Amino acid sequence: MPEEFTNMTIMTEFLLMGFPDDSTIQTLHAALFFIIYLAALMGNFLIVTLTTIDQHLQTPMYFFLKNLSLIDICYISVTVPKSIMDSLTNSHTISFLGCASQLFLVIFFAGTEYALLIVMAYDRYAAICRPLHYETMMSSGACVRMVTASWFSGCVYGSIHVTGTFSVNFCGQNIVQQFFCDVPSLLTLACSGEHILESAFIIASCCFAFVCFILMVVSYVHIFSTVLRIPSVKGRMKAFSTCIPHLTVVTLFLFSGIITYLAKNLKSTSSLKMLISVFYTVLPPTLNPLIYSLRNKDMKMALGKLIARKMSSIFP
């Protein structure tokens, strides 16, 4: 029998050892993650609330933004609360099923967010390049179908990768050098030559994601060429201002993903890889509400009206 199969281990649970096993660092990590998590929840729930109750925010762009905030709430909730509890209780175990579920949900929400960002790019293209056909192209039915397709594609993406990752046989220890279950960390535990299927899935998904990225770039080339033809400076600035938040979010999302990919494939310390993983799992859901609210006059007005309404109910 080959040596790799004699060393094969039946995994019933994993140990998530992303952070050093030091009580001070564990407490600091739990406190920092709690503050970040609370800020992400408050910011995204605020956007969901405003885009739901304010009549001026019932447009396709804010409908997509509401779904983006819902995705971010779910995305950060998959990893951070578990990590906080692990640090506070000094228990780093996660069951085999729990690890598979966490891996699926992380990829599911990340894939859904990427698909939704492509849809949002199409919305900006329709609004600026095809304004006369915008209501037809972005009807309520079309928006619902595009959002549904985004969630469905994320589900398929997560299912493919969790199947590919857990189709392998594991050898050796069950220690995952990460604060959550992710594909690269789990594949390091696989027996030699066992991760060919998942590697094929990764290559195929990267190719598909690259094609989608090219389509997004093409749409923005059309957008910029249309905006530059607007005669008034005020008109150009107004058109650009509707694209800047989306471009910022896309840049943050893709940049964090690329940095993470490079870190996983370059020789670097486990601490550096863990910090970069924090960057792509925690930072986008926390910063997205700030990006979309700080520069958005409609969001500021809706927030002002909500605060005024609450104040008038408290102090009639």
How would you describe what is shown here?
- With about 325 residues, this protein is mostly helical.
- It has a single domain, classed as Rhodopsin 7-helix transmembrane proteins (Rhopdopsin 7-helix transmembrane proteins), CATH 1.20.1070.10.
- The protein contains 11 helices and 5 strands, in the order αββααβαααββααααα.
- Strands 3-2-5 form a 3-stranded mixed beta sheet. A two-stranded antiparallel ribbon has the order 1-4.
- It starts with a helix and ends with a helix.
- The N terminus is likely disordered.
Could you give a quick summary of the protein structure above?
This protein is mostly helical and 316 residues long. The protein has 11 helices and 5 strands; from the N terminus they run αββααβαααββααααα. Its main location: membrane.
Side-by-side strand order of the widest sheet: 3-2-5
Total count of helical runs of at least 4 residues = 11
Mean pLDDT rating: 83
By CATH, the topology is Rhopdopsin 7-helix transmembrane proteins
What is the overall shape?
A: globular
Helical fraction equals: over 70%
Largest sheet: 3 strands, mixed
C-alpha end-to-end distance = 81 Å
Uncertain runs: 1-5
The count of DSSP E runs of length 2 or more, i.e. the number of strands, is 5
* Structural category: mainly alpha
CATH architecture annotation: Up-down Bundle
Approximate strand percentage: under 5%
CATH superfamily, called what?
Rhodopsin 7-helix transmembrane proteins
CATH first level = Mainly Alpha
Number of domains: 1
N-to-C order of helices and strands: HEEHHEHHHEEHHHHH
How large is the radius of gyration?
Answer: 22 Å
